[in-house]
TrEMBL record:
UniProt keyword annotation of Chloroplast present: no
Pfam assignment, any one: WD40
Taxonomic source organism: Paramecium primaurelia
EF-hand domain sequence ranges: 83-118
Taxonomy of the source species: Eukaryota, Sar, Alveolata, Ciliophora, Intramacronucleata
UniProt superkingdom: Eukaryota
Protein name: EF-hand domain-containing protein
Keywords associated with the record: Repeat, WD repeat
InterPro entries: EF_Hand_1_Ca_BS, EF_hand_dom, WD-EF-hand_domain, WD40_repeat_CS, WD40_rpt
Amino acid sequence: MNNLLKRFEPSLTDVIKYLHEHQDMILVERNPYQADRLMMMLDNEKLDALDKEFHEHPNGIELPNFIWLMKCAISHAPEDKYELVNGLIKLFQDIDINGDGHMEWAEFTQYIIDAVIGSKDAQLYDTRFEKERELTEIEVLDRAYSRKSKRYIPMAQVDDSNHKNPIKNIAYCQQLDSVICLEQNSQHLRFYTPECQDKKFTLAPESESGKIFIIHFHTVDNYIAAVTSDRQLIFWDATTFKVIKQFKQEVLQTGIWYFPYHELWVTAGSDYNIRGWSIPWNEKDSKGQVIKFLNAHTKQITDIVELISPKLLASASQDGKIKLWDMQDQKFITELKTPAPSKRGVKGLSYNQDYGSNLISYGFETFINVYCPEVSITRAYIGRLEGHSSLVVTCKFIPQSPNCVSIDDHTNIRIWDIRQMSSVQVIPNDQQSLVTDLCIITRTDRFVYSGKRLNYFYNAAQMSSNQKQKGPNEEVYPIYVEFNMYFNQFIVLTKFDLRIYDAMGGKLKKVMNEVFDDKIQLDLSTFCFGGRQRKLFIADNAGLIRQYNMKTGEFLKKVNMHNEIENSEFANKLANIKKRDTLDISSIIFLQEEKLLISASQDSTIRIYDETDPEESILLKVFCGGHQNSEILSMSYSSNFTMLATGSANGLISLWDFETSKLCGVLNTPQPLAEVTALEFADPYPVLVSLQGILISIWNIKTNKCLLRINTNPLSPMLSVAIFSDISSGPSRQELLPEFAGPLVDKTAQDKKSKLNLQEEQEGLMKDIQQYDTEQHQNKRRALLYMGDQKGYMHILSLTEFLQRKGITEMEKLKKGHSYQLKRKDLIDVSKSVETFLVQEEKQQSPVLTCNISALLIRQWVAHSSAIVKINKIRELVSFISSSMDKHFKIWSMKGELWSDISLAKYDGSNYWKFPFDWVGQKLKDIELVFDALKLIEKENLSPYEKERVKVRFLVNKYFNEAALEEMQRNYAQPEQVVVQREKKRLIQSQSQPMNIALKSIAEPYKELTQKMKDDQLKKKKLELPEVLEEPKRPQSQHGLVQRLMLAFNDNKDIAKEDGIDQKKKQPNKNAHQKRIQELPQMKPSTSHSTFLQKYQRNYRFIQTQVQTRPHTESKKYKFVHDIKYQFGESQRAMKIKYYQNSLKFQSVSPQLLCDDNEILQMKCKFYKKQNEDLIESESSDKSYEEDDLGHPKQHKQIIASHNFLNNAQKNDHKVLNTKKKIFVV
C-alpha cells in the first residue's frame, strides 16, 4: 500500500469524500498503538528504564515528557511517528482522568494492565478459525452476567437414585444438556438432567471378552469417548448413541481427552506416555492411528489440559511434575516449577483462557498453585490460593469467568476470584463426605460435585437468560441514555446494569452489572459523566453514589454514605432534616469547571460534593426546607445564569442562586398536588419549563412569574420534556391528529376573576402561527420544546414567537465570580423563606393565560409503542434521544428524522443505525493535536501542504486497504494537467513562506569565538579544535531553563604543558595526560539517564560539526568541557570530555531546551553582570553576539571569571573544573 501511495497521492478532500461514501470502512479502524499493544512493545529493560525516568519526577510527568520518553523506548518506523504520537496522546488522556496534566508511574502501569485485561475481555478465541474475534452482543451480555459476583447455594433437589459404588468421574455434555457420571468399577455411563433428575438411561460398551469396565470418558460436541479395561477406545454418537468407532490397542489407556485448538484426540497410557490419535471417521473398518507420541512421565498421568496462549499441552502426573509439550513438533518445552515442589504428586489441572490465561494445579496439598504461562513459560508461577484447612481434592475454573471452585476432603467449598487471588465465598459443610470429581454446568451457571451421590449448587445471584432480557416484571428498559463524545459511545442505564453501545456501529460492546452490591436489593436510578467524560457517577434508589472509570469500568470511590450528615461538621443542624425511609436519588449533575457534584434525593435534601480530590469526595453543603419536606423528583441547572431549579411531589419549584447558596424564588402552580416530574432551563432565554401531569408551565426566572400554561391531552399525559435553543431552521408544520386538535385558548381553565382579554390573546397566538410559517426556513435562534407522552407520541412546540411577543429575549452568559461561599461547608435550611415566598405570591398573583397544545404544536408523530420516559439532548450534534418502556431508545434529528433505533431485547443484528456524526473530522482534530505536540517536542514546523500529506497518510493507514485505495485511484485520479497545476501552486506557496530553518546549535557562536581567539592570540601557531557534538533534543522541563557553559582554556605554555603537550617535541606527553585525567572530578553517574540512553542510542542522532580553522604549520590541541545542568538541580549534569583521540563518555544526560543563541547569551550576560564583586573585566575589546534594538551587533567587553567565583556554591549553581586558572565565560 505504501508503494501505491508513492505512485498515487490522493488529495485530502478525495479521501474524506470516499470515507463519507463508504461509512462501513470507518467501523474497521486499524490502530497499532493501542494501550495493550504499547505494553507488548516494552520489554523488561525498557520498563526499568522508564520506571527510573518516572521517578525523577515525583509529582508525575507532563504530556511532552511522556511522549518523548515513549518515543525513545518504542521502536517504530519513521512513517509511523504520527500514529504513535496520536496513540500516546490518547493514552495520556485516558490515564489522566483527573485532568491535572500529570501522570505517575503507578497510574501508567495499572492502566496498561487494566487495558490489556479489558481488551481480552472484548475478544473471544474462535478455535474453528484459530484467531480472535469480537464478541457478539449476546455473548457480551452472557459474559457480563457469568462473571457477576457469585453466591452459590445448594439446590433443593437431591440425588435420590441408587449408586452401587462411589461416583468416579462426572462431565457435562452441552449437546445433550446432561450430566454424565461414571461409577467406580462400572461398565455403564449414567445420565442426569441439570435439575438433578435421573434420565433412566445408560450407555455401555460392547465386548466379546466378557465384562469390562470404563476407566475414563470424555465428551465434546457430538462425541462421547471412553477407554476401557480391555484396552479399547470407543466413540459414540452423542445424538443417536451408536458406536461409530471402536478399536483395541496394545497398551492400556488411563485417560482420554479432545483438544479443539489442536484438533486432536489425546490419551494417557499406563506406560506413562502421551499419544495423539488420528481417527478416520469415514472409514468403518479402519482403526485410529497414533500420529503423536511423547515419552512423558515416570508415574501415572493424572490430567492433561490444552493451553491456548501459548499453543501447548500441559500434563500432570503423580511424579509431582507439570510439563508443557509442543504437540506439533512432538517435543518437551519446559517444566512448571513452584517454590515448594509437591512430593506427593499432582492430581489435576484446570485452565482458563480469559482473565490472564491462568493455569491452576491441585492435589495432596491444602493450597492451589496458580501459573500464567502466557507471560512466561519459564517463570509461570505467580502464587497460591490459600484458605483450605485440609487437602484440596478438586478445583475447576468456571468458563468465561474469573472464578474457580475448589473442594477439600472435608467437603468445604470455596469460590475464588483469580484476579484478586482471594476467596469471595465459603460454603462450609459440617458433615464430612466423600468428594471425587467436579463439573461446571455452563448453561445455567451451576456446578456439581460427586462422591457417593451427586450434589448440585446454583448461583442465587445469577439471572436466567430471560431475566437478562426482561428482568423482574419485564422492566428492563432504558431509563436514561447519554452520548459520550470522548469514547464515542452511548451509555444506556437500566434498573439492573449499564450498557455501552458503540456510537459508530450501534453494537453492544460492554455491560457493567457489578455497580452495586448483590446483597442489597436495589435499582439504579440515574448517572452522569464527570472528569471530562472520563469518569462516571452512578446513583441508586438506596441513596448511594459511586464513581467508576469510564474506560475500564474500574470502581474508583464511594461518593457518599448514609450517615454522612451525622458525621459532618454541621451535624448540630440535623434536626432540620426529617428522617425518611426512601432515600432514592432522583437526579445528579456534575459541574466540570467547579468540580462539584449536585444530587437531589427523595429525603427532600440537595447535597453538593467537592470532587477536587480524586480519592475522596467531601460534602460541602446540604440544602433543606425548600420543598416543605416533600420528595424532590426533578432538578435542572442553568450554566448561563448559575441557577439551580428543583421540583417536588407537592408541586413546588425552588430556584437557588448557586454561587451564593441562597433561595431566590418559589414557583407554585394552581394544582398543588401535581408532581413536578421534569424541569428544563431554556438557556440563553431566562425561561424555565416545568411539567406537572397534563400541565406545562413557562416561567420567567427573572420575575418568578408564569408566562403561559399549556394544557395537554388528559388521555395521554406528558412524561418527559426537553428544550432546544439553537440556531437552525424550523421543522415543517404538519396537520394535527384529531385527538389533539381544538381551540387555541382553553376557556374552561381560565380564572373567572381574570382580567385577560381572551380574544386578544387568541389573536396573538394566531399571529405567532403565521409568523412561524413565514420564517420557518430562516436560520435563527429558536426555542423548541420536545415532549413525549404516555402513549409514545412525540410533540414539537415552538416557543420562539410567543417569547418574542412577550419581550423575552436571549441574554448573555453571566460571568462567574470566585465565590468563597460556594466552597464553604454549611447546612442551609430555607423553610421560613419558602413560607414568605408563598405568602407574597398569593398577594401578588397575576392572571396567566392557559392555552391548548394545538396553539403551539408544530409537529407530532408516533415515536414509540409505549410511554416515553426520558428525552435528553446531544449537544455535540444538534439532536435528541428518546427512551421508552418499549425497550427501545431512538436518536432523532431536530426535525423528527429517525437516525437510529436500538432495542435492548434484540441481539440478532436487526437494529437500525445511521448516526451522522463526523468521525473523519474528529480524527483530523486528533492529528492537529499531534502537530502541536511535535512542534513543542521536536520543533517541527510543517507547511500546510506537508500537514495535508500527513493527514492523508494517517487516514489511509487507519481505514484503507489496497483494494479501497485502488478503487479510489480509478474513481478520483486527477488528470496530469491538474496535478501539475497543483504542484506549481504548492511550490509558489512554499516559496512565499519562510523556510523551516532549524535553530542554530550552541556551537555556532562558539565557532566564532574560537576563530576570534585564534586570530588575536595564536597568529603564529596552528590551532586544531576538536569536534563539537550536539546532544539530543529534549522537551522543556517544568523546573527551569537549561543553561550551557562553554569554557575554553587560556592559551599559554603552562596550560599546554599541563595538558600534556611538550612544546619542544610537539608530541603529547602521555604521563602528563594521565595525571591530568586523574585530577578531573569524579561524579556519580545518573543511572536512570545513562542506562536509558546507552541502551537505546539508536533513537538518537548525534550531529557532529567540524570547526573551521585556518591552516598552519604548527599543531596544537585544546580541551573543552561542556557543563549542562538544571537551574534548580532537577538532575545531574553531563560532562563531555574529548581529549586527543579519546571517545566521548557519557556520565549523565539531563533534558535540555535549545533556545535561540541571542537569548542564551543575553541571559548569561545578565546573570554574570550581577556578580560585580567576583567578576574581573579584561581589557580585551572582543565583540559579543548580542544585538541592539536595530539589529546591529553591540560592543561588549569579554568577561573573565575566576575559579573562586565559578566554584562558589552559594553564588553560582554551575560547578566546573578546578583549573586554578582564569577561564573564558561565554
